[in-house]
Prior knowledge:
Two copies of one chain form a homodimer. With 704 residues, the first copy, chain A, is an alpha+beta fold. Among the domains of chain A are: 2-91 and 98-286, Beta-galactosidase, Chain A, domain 5 (Distorted Sandwich), CATH 2.70.98.10; 506-531 and 538-566 and 601-704, TIM Barrel (Alpha-Beta Barrel). The first copy, chain A, has 13 helices and 36 strands. In chain A, the strands form six sheets. In chain A, strands 6, 7, 8, 9, 12, 13, 15, 16, 20 and 21 form a ten-stranded antiparallel beta sheet that branches. In chain A, strand 23, helix 7 and strand 24 form a beta-alpha-beta unit. At the A-B interface, helix 8 and helix 9 of A face helix 8 and helix 9 of B.
Amino acid sequence: MKQIAILVTLFFVATIALNAQELKSPNGKLVMTFSMQDNGVPTYMLTYNNKAVIKQSTLGLELKDDEKSLLNDFKVVTTNTSTYSNTWQPVWGEQKEILNNYNELAVILKQNETNRKMTLRFRLFNDGLGFRYEFPEQTELVYFVIKEERTQFAMAGNHTAFWLPGDYDSQEYDYTESKLSEIRGLFDTAVTHNASQEQFSKTGVQTSLMMKSDDGLYINLHEAALINYSCMHLELDDENLIFESHLTPDAQGNKGYLQAPCTSPWRTVMVSSGAREILASKLTLNLNEPCAIEDTSWIKPVKYMGVWWEMITGKSSWAYTDDLPAVQLGITDYTKVKPNGKHAANNENVKRYIDFASEHGFDGLLVEGWNEGWEDWFGKSKDYVFDFVTPYPDFDVEELHAYAKSKNVTMIMHHETSGSTRNYERHMDKAYQFMKDNGYDAVKSGYVGNILPRGERHYGQWAVNHYQYAIEKAADYQIMVNAHEAVRPTGVCRTYPNLIGNESARGTEFQAFGGSKPNHVTVLPFTRLIGGPMDYTPGIFEMDISKLNPNNNSHVNSTIANQLALYVTMYSPLQMAADLPENYQRFMDAFQFIKDVAVDWDKSIYLEAEPGQYITVARKEKGGDSWFVGNVNGMNTRTSSIKLNFLDKDKKYKATIYADAKDAHYKTNPQAYKISTKKVTHKSKLALQSVPGGGYAISITEIK
Amino acid sequence: MKQIAILVTLFFVATIALNAQELKSPNGKLVMTFSMQDNGVPTYMLTYNNKAVIKQSTLGLELKDDEKSLLNDFKVVTTNTSTYSNTWQPVWGEQKEILNNYNELAVILKQNETNRKMTLRFRLFNDGLGFRYEFPEQTELVYFVIKEERTQFAMAGNHTAFWLPGDYDSQEYDYTESKLSEIRGLFDTAVTHNASQEQFSKTGVQTSLMMKSDDGLYINLHEAALINYSCMHLELDDENLIFESHLTPDAQGNKGYLQAPCTSPWRTVMVSSGAREILASKLTLNLNEPCAIEDTSWIKPVKYMGVWWEMITGKSSWAYTDDLPAVQLGITDYTKVKPNGKHAANNENVKRYIDFASEHGFDGLLVEGWNEGWEDWFGKSKDYVFDFVTPYPDFDVEELHAYAKSKNVTMIMHHETSGSTRNYERHMDKAYQFMKDNGYDAVKSGYVGNILPRGERHYGQWAVNHYQYAIEKAADYQIMVNAHEAVRPTGVCRTYPNLIGNESARGTEFQAFGGSKPNHVTVLPFTRLIGGPMDYTPGIFEMDISKLNPNNNSHVNSTIANQLALYVTMYSPLQMAADLPENYQRFMDAFQFIKDVAVDWDKSIYLEAEPGQYITVARKEKGGDSWFVGNVNGMNTRTSSIKLNFLDKDKKYKATIYADAKDAHYKTNPQAYKISTKKVTHKSKLALQSVPGGGYAISITEIK
C-alpha cells in the first residue's frame, strides 16, 4: 500500500507538475505560471515581485471550418526547461553588445480528441516575458486557417494606457492617454483622417501598448518576429479588463494561412518598476533570429537630408505637371506636357540640396518626386502606378549621381508604391538593379493608400509577407530599406539589419498636416520604437508652416531644442535633417548639433523617463569617446536634473548645451533657444529647464 | 419662315439622324440600329435578313459610389461611320489569310448632367456584330470603378442554347442543351464538382454561348480582346429572355477598376443562317489588335506527347513521395524521403517517352510532376507552392534535355501554379530563364484550385491581368504559352501569337474523371473555340481507364475514329497524342493518322456542322498539298455525305479513311475501326457512317 501510495503521490505530483509549472526570470523577480484549466485550456499568468501583472489568461487559436479548433481539450505531454545566456553584437544599434538571457519553458500539448500537437514556448527575461505558439510537423495538423487567435492578456488593474485606435491600415494617430476603462468613450475622437484606415472595435488598440499601473508598474504589450503571420492588435473586454489578440483579416475575413511546422510570432509582455527599463529593454530584438546576412559590411547608418519637406508642406510638388487628368506610364509623354513650375525634384534644386548636404557633412540625399507617375499617385487604387525607374524630364539620374558623388554625398532612392504591392513586386528586380547601376544603396519605400490586391490590409499576412519579400530581396542586392506605412516593426531588423528603418507611426510630416500633440515624442519610444527604430525625420526649425506655404496654417508643436534632442531620444540608424537648407541657414548655431550628433552607438543610458512626460537619454558614439544627451519634454515646464556619471572617470569633457530659452514655448515661441558650453566630468550634474514641447540636446566631447 | 422651316427640318432630321442610326454589314444582310431612348439610354438592335436577332437592348455601366453612373441621361454629340477592309496573315491558324471587313459606327455620347463622354463603337461584319464601350481622355471621367456592366442582349425567341453554368472560377462543365426557358430548372444538375468553382445565379451562363433559333438562325455571344477588364458572363432574365452582362467580381465585389482613356472588350454577336459560318467566323480575331510581336520566327505549332495521362488516370503520380504530410520548398530534403515508386516523371520513364515520340516524329514531350512540391500541390491554398526550377531527385533536367535533343525532341515545360499567382510572378523571370537555359521553348501553365490572392477569382480583372502578364513576359523570353484553367480566350492570340493554347474548358482529362458527354466535342468548337484554340489533348485509344488504373472505372466516351478526327475538328496549333505509348503500340495503324496529320493550315473548310450533333471539316496543310478531313459525331448514328470538291482540280489523290467499324459504339465497342484507302479527285463524294460518339478521319495526299 505504501508503495502504491508513493506511486500515486508521485504521479499526482507529476501531474500537478505537468499541469502547472512555474518559470522564473534570471533574477527571480518575474514569475510566469503556466497551468491547464479543467477543460484542457492552457493558461498563463505573470507576477512581478509577487504583484500580478497578467492575471490568469487563456491561450489558443480558433480555426476556420474546424469546430474543435485549438482552444481546449489539451493535455500536457511533457515540459522542457532551459536557460540561455549569450551576448551578441548588432550591426547597428543603441548598444554595441546586447545580453540575451532568459529562462525558457516549453510546454508540449496534445489535443485529446484530435491528437494534434501544439507547443507553447515561454521565455522569461529580467525585463519581460515572450511566448509563442509552435505547431510541430505532424499528420494531424498540416494546413490550417486561423479564424482568430485567442491569446488573452488579463490586466490586473485599470491601468493608464498610451494607445492608438486599433486599425488594419494605419498607425498615424496621435496617442491618447487614458485609463483602460475610458478607451471606449474616447475612441471616436482618437480616430483622425488617413489615406487608408479601418478600425474594428471601439475598444481595439494597436501594439505596442504602453501602460502604467496605479502602483507604479510599467507594462508593455507587443509582438516580436512578425513573419508570415497576420499583425496582432488587442481588443479590450473593458468590463473585465482583459485584452485579447485580434489579428488583421485578409480579403475574405480570415486571419492567417499556416502550414506546420511553423510558429506564431512571440507575444511580449515587458514589465518593470521603472519606465527607463522599458526603453532600454532589448527583449524584442532578443526574441528574433540572429542576423541572416553573412556580409553586413555594406549596411551603414546614414545621416541625410531630403527634397521632401517642401512637398510635405505644400510649398512645392511631387508631381511634374498639373495639366493632365491622369497619366499612363509609358504612354504619357512628359516632354510634351506643361510643367507646373513647382516640381521640386529638378536638377537645379537637387544640386542645391547636394551642395548644402555636402558642405555640412551629410551622407545622403533623399529625393522624392523624381519619377514619372506622381500626378495621380494615391487615392485612385491604381495598379500600374509607378515603374520605379523612369525619371521626370527635369531629373537627370546619371548627372545627379555623378554630382553627388563628386561631393561625397550618396543619393537615396525613393519607391513610393501607393500600396500597389503586385506592381512593386513586378518591378522590384529592375528597380533594385537600377539603384545599384546608379549608385543608390538605400531606399525609402512607401505604401500610401489602400493596399492592392484590393481587400487586403496593410497589416494582414499577405502584406506582411510582401514587406518581408522586399527586405530579403533588397539584402540580395545589398540594399538598405526604410519602409514607410508598412507594418509596425517587431525586431526583424536583428535578422535583416538592412531594414534600417520604418515609419509606421505618426511622424514629423503630421506636424505639417495639422500638428501632433506636443508630448507625442515622449510617448513614441515607449510604443512604436519598442519594435525597432523609427525614421521620424526630425530637425524642423521653422514651426510656422504658413511661412513655407501660405495655404498651410499648420504649426510644428515643438521647440528647436526639442527638435535637436530627437536625434538622441528617437533612436534610429537613419537620421534626417528634414527642414529646408534655407531654414537651417537661419539657425546655423543650432544646426551644428545636428551636424555633430552620431547615428550609431556603443552605449545608451536612459537617465530618466516617464511616458507622455519626458525622456532623457545619454548615448556614446560608436567607436569614439563623445557622448550625446537628449531630453524631450511633454506639456509641463520641467527641470531635468541629470548626473553625468556615465562619463569616463579619467577624462575631461566639454559639453555644448542646446536648451530652450527661458521663455520658449512650442506654440508661442518655439525658436527661442540658448547655446552654452561647459566643462564637465563624470562628477558633473546638470539642471536644465525644458518648456512645454521643449527639451535640450547636449554634445559632450573629450578635452584632450 | 421658309428658311426657318427648312432649318428646323434639317435640325430635326439631323437630330433623328443622330438619335437613331443604322449600320449595315458589307453584304447588307445584317443591320444594326442604334437609338436613344427618351431618358438618354443608348440602345442597339440587330436584324439578319430583316429577322430580329437582338431586340432593342440597352447599354451602359453601373459605377460604384456614383448614383448617376453611366446608364442614362446621354445625348448623341456626333456619329462617325467608316469602312474597313484588309487581309492579314496570322502566324498560325486555320487559314493562311484572313479577311477583316466591316462597317463601323462610332457614337460619341455625352452625359448631360455630368458632361462625361462615352463612345459606343459598333463594327458590323458579314458574320456578326462587335461593339464596345470607349472612355476617352477627359477631366470628367478619369478613375472609375465598375459595379456592374449593364449590356443587354435581348433575345428574339426561346432559342435552343448550348450552355455552361455561369461560374467565376471554372469552365470545366459538360454542356447542357436546352431552351433558354429551361436553364433555371436544369442549372443545379449542370453544376458538377470542381477544385475551384463559384456560381452566381440559377440563370447565369458562360460565354461563348451558342444558340439556335426555331427558325434556323445560329447566334453566338462572346467577347473579344479581354484585356485588363473582368471576364463577362451572361445572366438571363428568363421571363423576358433578355441576357445581361455579369462581370466577375473581385475580392470586394467590385467588377473592374478603370482609368480613362480605355475601352471595354468587344461584345460579340455572331449570326448566320448556317452553323458552318459560325465555326468559320474570324470575327473574334478580327476585333483584336494586330500582332504585337515583331519577330515571330520562334513561334511554331507543336505536335507533342506527354508524361501526363498516366497521372491523370491515377496509374502513376505527380508526387515523388507519399511519406510527408506536407512539403516546404527549400527545406524538405527529397533525397532523404521514401519515393512512392509511382512517380512518373523519372529519367527512365521520360526517356522511354522520348524514344517513342522521336521514333514517330513528334516535336515535343511535356513532362508534368518533374519539380519539387507536388505532394501538396492543390486544395491547400498554399502560397509558396512551387519554385518552377527545382527538379525531383529522379529527374535530371540537363541529361533529359540532351537526350531529347539528340533524338530531335524538344522538352515542353510545365508550370503548375496551383492558382498562387503572386508566387508565380515572383518566380517568373527565373522560371522563364531556366527554360531558355535548358532548351525549353514552350510551357503549359496551370491554375488548379482557388486563386491567390485569396478572394480573387479565376476570371476577375486581377487574374486576367496576371495571365496577360505571363503571356507578355513569355514573349520577351521567346516562350510559347499554353495556359490551362486560365480565363477563356477571346482572340488575344492574334496580338500575342505566343499564346498557342488554352484549356479553359472541359478537356480530355475529364474522360478519366468520370467521362464527358459523347457529343461534347461537337459543341466545343461552337462555344469554347470561338475565342481561340483549345489544347484538348486528344488521341486516347484505351477507353477503359480501369485497364490503366484498376481503381478508376472511368470510360472515355468516344470511339478511336472520333479521337483521330479531333486532330482536325478541334483546331489547335498545339496537338497532343495524349495516351500512353503502349496503348498506341496496340493500334499502330490508327496511330498513323496522328503521325500524319498537320498542325497548321493554309485553308479550312467546314463541310457540315450542327452544334451537339456533328462537325465535319476539311483542312489543307500549310505550305503543302495534303488535305485532312475530320468528322465528329454526336449521339445518333449518322451517315456523313461530303463532296471533296475542295481538292485541286488537276490533281489525283489517295485518301486514307479511318472510320468507325459498322458495329462500333463509344460505350460498348469504342476500339472498332476500319481503315481503307481510295483514289479520289475533286469530283469525289464520300458517304461514311459515324456511330454514337464516333466519327472519321481522312488523310488525303497527292498521287504524283
